[in-house]
From TrEMBL:
<protein>
    <submittedName>
        <fullName>Discoidin domain-containing protein</fullName>
    </submittedName>
</protein>
<feature type="region of interest" description="Disordered">
    <location>
        <begin position="33"/>
        <end position="57"/>
    </location>
</feature>
<dbReference type="InterPro" id="IPR008979">
    <property type="entry name" value="Galactose-bd-like_sf"/>
</dbReference>
<dbReference type="Pfam" id="PF22633">
    <property type="entry name" value="F5_F8_type_C_2"/>
</dbReference>
Length: 220
């Protein structure tokens, strides 16, 4: 029997060897309907803002088998919302309706999802408030295995370019809220907790959230 045939048989029985590159597939998202409010004429602009595109987002590739491990998981926050409930941020509903939006007071605020156990995170998808075409400020995404975020904090996204929110100077660009949400590359880091910051938007000083999804695989 040839060496090639032997290797093929071993592969079929044992599967991919440890450390072998995982098969990647496009991330499939269940997107909400676009807002019907239209695009304002006075959109913010500048070198730190991604231009609003009218084209579909390019595919984002993740390992085959990832699932949204944030669905139904508990959410805590820096302050309690004055509209909506924290549980709505992981309930799977993210339409451009008032009752699907959770609103918080002004200033830098965060929401945090407890995934229940460590996962290898490959994508975090966020919808802040796509009822309006707007830009949210100081969007920061961090993960950790420490619920207090005092140790082992990894920052995956930060567009706070002047450190107004005190989490370090960010190099990412601001972006417009649309029904597609924002995909943040999880880079395969292992963590149990996901914490996301905002500090108002171009539309309002209030902070809003509609949904957080975390696409991951078990860490073990």
């Amino acid at each position: 029997m040839s060496t090639a045939i032997c290797l093929a048989l071993v592969w079929g029985v044992l599967g991919p060897a440890p450390g072998r590159a995982q098969e990647k597939v496009p991330l499939e998202l269940k997107l909400p309907a676009p807002t019907l409010k239209g695009t304002p004429e006075d959109l913010p602009s500048g070198p730190n803002i991604e231009p609003l595109s009218d084209k579909p987002r390019p595919p984002f590739y993740v390992p085959k088998g990832v699932t949204n491990v944030a669905l139904g998981k508990p959410v805590t926050a820096s302050v309690q919302p004055f509209t909506g409930e924290l549980s709505q941020i992981t309930d799977g509903r993210k339409e451009a309706f008032d009752y699907d939006t959770v609103e918080f007071r002004r200033g830098t605020q965060w929401v945090q999802v407890d995934l229940g156990q460590p996962y290898r995170i490959y994508a975090i998808v966020m919808w802040h408030d796509h009822r309006y075409i707007q830009v949210f400020h100081d969007v920061i995404v961090q993960v950790s295995n420490d619920p207090e975020f005092k140790e082992g904090v990894i920052t995956l996204f930060n567009n706070d370019t002047d450190n107004t929110s005190g989490q370090g100077v960010g190099t990412d660009r601001e972006y417009f809220e649309t029904h597609e949400g924002k995909i943040v590359d999880g880079k395969g880091v292992t963590a149990r907790y996901v914490r996301c910051y905002t500090r108002g938007s171009s539309q309002s000083a209030l902070n809003c959230w509609q949904e957080i999804e975390v696409y991951a695989l078990p860490a073990s």
